[in-house]
TrEMBL record:
It comes from Hepatospora eriocheir. GO terms for molecular function: RNA endonuclease activity. The gene is CPSF2. It comes from the Eukaryota. SUPFAM superfamilies: Metallo-hydrolase/oxidoreductase. This is CPSF2.
Amino acid sequence: MKSSKFNCQVLYESLIDNKTEVYCHLLTIGDVNIVVNLGIGNDFDYNIYTDKIKKIISNADGILLTSFDIKHFGALGLFTDHKIFCTVPTAVIGKIMLDNVEGKRGNILNNINVTMVKYAQPFKIKNIEIVTYNAGGVVGNSLFNFKIGLNSISLGYNINHASEKYVEGLSEMFLSSVFITNDVYGCVSSMTLTARTKEIETLINMTVGHVIFIVNITRLIELILTLKQKVCVISNLNIMERVKFMIEWANINNFELVDFNVPFNKINDKLKKCIIIISDYGNDIYLGGILRRFNERNDILIDLTDGYKLTNIPVYDIKYEQRIKRYEKTEEVKVEEVKSEVSEFEWYDLNDTVFINDRQTKFFPRKFFKVVEDDFGLEFDFKVENIEEIESQSEEDIEEIVEIETFHKTETIRVVPIQTLNIDYFKGVSDLNGIKEIFNNFGVEKLIIVGNKEINFDIMTGFLMDDIKEVYYCDNEKVQIEIDSSVTSLVTISGELLNKPFYTLDDKHILVSPVMRTDNIIDVENSKNNLNIALGKLEVKEVVKILQENNFKVSQVYNILTVNENLTITFNDTLEISSYDNTLLISVRELLYKKMLIFSQ
């Protein structure tokens, strides 16, 4: 099968100076311009987005957000009316974190206009088909794959190959000759994650005092899983429920989640051995007050963020005030009342409402939690039943009590007695061996590394240079490459065919293996024009075997397979897949594509 080669120009450039360590880049594929991430620094200085940069972003064809990390998501408030794509957890958790920090600044961020995409669900920006996959490491972290003819570009930051409990690594592997990633998530040594975990375990066991970690919220789950022991997570009251959701989502039970204001002498000593402080999205104002309580010679402080100056740390007096908010609009709303046989308990009303796409959206149901006072403060009981709708009334008659956080600086402290460690090898979420394996599995030939720290780039490049033909460093200069965008070529050889030779007999036929037998010849001419639904000649029993091995329910009537009662595969001269369930269709199609030889007209 012959084809003409067409080259597509691909450019990747930083829109924000790399010295800020903020992620905001422009990906240009042909005539399509896509902005990747809208990050901000911990100081929330929006001035880094100059009028020129804002104009470039406004004129782009779309914006992609890889995660809700502050340096990928934090400047979203500047561009809420633009065409933005991200996963549901990224939109919801990111919005809550932004509300938290903007509330401290006296601002209200009422709305985020985003298109929320699911993993493995294709969408388009102009003529570019994009599919989002799980990149691992944190809830909602995304790897974007851009289809260019039958070639593709993959883009993912902070990708994690490790799979532990529900925090899975990369969910899909496919051929992608070009890969774009960043340079700060790989350990700056050849140590494996397993060896690193043992080092940390040894350090904790040898420490007489407390081991205190300062982290961004996106590394919370990965850190708890790495420590493999009971920990105390200190969080802001306003985001505690979301933090609790993230931890429980990962099926982690060995933690205690407490508010910054809880007296630490009431926390179980076993939980105080390892303390994790969430510090980003404005939560660094609590750091001084916490370190003042643990400023002892036997304690160890491990900073896994971008680094704090441990002198003259401000200490704030934090208070919560209740204020009444009255609604002015008149609209029919539903009021719920909780009925319980346990009348001696008060009830705490926790509102999980967020504003997505200009409307109230409750991705996590509104609940009323029973308040229980004990030595550990407030404990939320989730086992609440008998919630009944009893009436409707005008919204103008409703008054809501809003809890406002107020704080003022009381003093500054200098952290001197406390031991501070800069454990470089602990700062990465993936080890270099794992990253190398990822790129090998993707068949990466051209790697673009977004640079924040040149030493990380040098280490990654040195480790990968024998396996990847071309490595580019994207700091403050444009990276320009070309890729083949031909639409008629061999896409994938995998599975049992991986090591078999193939030969072009003519423009219409391919021979698999050197043995000239009819069942080894793929008839390209009879393949469907649409790559999405066509494969070459396949054995029915082979397809059934593959589907059943991957936990699909399969039944057969003559030359038609029914999968999960909602998808049909018809075998004639070619194999055709059809279903009204788009998610199921994509899953089955991608599975078979990885196992079979694929062609396109």
